[in-house]
Amino acid sequence: MADDITRLDGKVAWVTGSGRGMGRGHAIVLAERGADIVVHDVLEDEAAETVAAVKKLGRRVFVSHADVSDVAAVKKTADDAIAALGRIDILVNNAGIGQHKPLEEISEADFDRMFDIHVKGSFFCGQAVMPGMKERRWGKIINIASIWAMTGAGINKASHYCAAKAALLGLTKAWAKELAPFNIHVNAVSPGGVLTEMPIKIQGWDMIREKEKKVPLGRWAKPEEVSYTVAFLASRESDFITGQMISPNGGETIVGF
Amino acid sequence: MDNPPNSLAGKVALITGAGDGMGRQHAILMAERGADVVINDVNAAGAEETASLVRALNRRAHVEVCDVADVAAIRRMVGNAISTLGRIDILVNNAGFGRRQQTWDIGEGDFDLMFDVHVKGSFFCAQAVLPGMKERRWGKIINISSIWGMTAAAVSPHYCAAKAALLGATKAWAREFAPWNIHVNAVAPGGVLSGGPLKFYTKEQLAAREAAVPLKRYCDPREISYAVAFLASPAADFITGQVLSPNGGEVIVGI
Fold first, then answer.
1. Residues of the domain holding B48
2. CA distance A14 to A85
3. What does the radius of gyration of chain B's CA atoms come to, in whole angstroms?
């Protein structure tokens, strides 16, 4: 195929939180395009399913069940994955949690957990993959934020989540500038409504159908639609794109420039 | 195409200003990914050359030589293109030009030409392709803006304003056409080794400008085409009203 620039053959991608939902989707789409995958999730059974799906595509896998908020465990995951698969070229900081609480009910532990997983976890995953990317003078870091980083959560009340996701946008821009001399490209993906198990379980179909009506395109995304954006930002197609955000959101959030 | 969601097989793309530079690269990449292409340009020879490159890829090409500032000509162009290739699924509003002028030196004629080509041309191209997209309930409109539409520059204020206007139209159309599953986005390139930069800068000036970009380079025109082709494909069916800026980190703004 002349047009093989979308392919990821020979690359290794680390997808945090890839045991289920969007993270699993990213792992599968990146594997379909030729990448070997570091499957990383605290949920062992779910991670095993993703591992099986990636192996079925004929790709190599390294699996970790480390908690991304544990800096030492993250470092060990990176070291072991590099020992097993040779390198990490692509990092997708996808691991995350949701929690719906009004401000007055968010405890210090809630706050810390939210920031530790999303921000600290992403930060030290980035730090762990940086040396190899610098050495090879090519790397892709994709931080999964959210439209709520831009708009807040409204009635869903999750101010710690919104702030943590916004922090990821700040980190994206800072790293884009800091790592540009090494040809490492850092971008964010801010999904809108996505039909993964979590919202279906927490919000239920009735609420989701109501919310879909408020999206200009009249629907939420299938999880793989977010993965296509991640895969674009992971490929050489996007080698001149850094410090940017792509928001697959059906037109729900149209802001800034 | 290895990745089905990125394929453009069976689609017809109208690309304005496809007779050279970035527009020609968009045409070639989209043809590589399976699209037939309507090639518009005021430059007949350039348009024909792009058409032969598209045909060499075994895709159909239809050439329409007209000025997008002429609304009647746009309507004829779209009518002819649809009779020849059957439909238009993807519109890339790429036709444009740069003019290095300061505010005091810009006459009404300069101002009108800048806005007529970039804004009015894009506006009425979109209007002309809309009925078919609505009918098929799928369409892609990609407006080519510029980082100068976001940050502006100390020169070419009419160009900066026209490119910003395209961002406004992008967002308005995204909302207006969403009920028909028509997706409207903008691509705002940074430094590209084509057109303006090659024409306006000396080698030394260009090197200095590239050094000021975080990635330390301007890009090949084809790197802009990758962003355009992504937005033109089913892989981007949940993306609308957004601005994608391949700019090497030169402009990092907004949220």
1. 4-191+220-244
2. 11
3. 17
**CA separation for the pair A17, A93 (Å, rounded):** 8
Structure tokens at A13: 């991608």
Our CA dihedral for B22, B25, B26, B32, rounded to 10 degrees, sits at -170
Q: Is residue B131 assigned to a domain?
A: yes
Q: Which of B178, B188, B255 sits opposite A216 (nearest CB)?
A: B178
**Residues A205, A207: Cα–Cα separation, whole Å:** 5
pLDDT in tens, A4-47: 899 999 999 999 999 999 999 999 999 999 999 999 999 999 99
Contacts of B137 in chain A (CB under 8 A): none
Would B62 be classed as within a structural domain? yes
Q: Looking at the predicted complex, does its ipTM rise above 0.95? A: no
Contact of B20 with B41, CB cutoff 8 Å: yes
Rounded to whole angstroms, how far apart are CA atoms B190 and A240?
9
As for how many domains chain B has, the answer is 1
In whole angstroms, what is the distance from residue B173 CA to residue B131 CA?
14
> Do A84 and A12 form a contact (C-beta atoms < 8 A)?
no
Dist CA B216 CA B250 (whole Å): 9
- State the best of B210, B238, B251 to mutate against chain A, taking most chain A CBs within 10 Å: B238
In angstroms, the CA A49 to CA B251 distance is: 40
Domains of chain A: 12-246 (3.40.50.720)
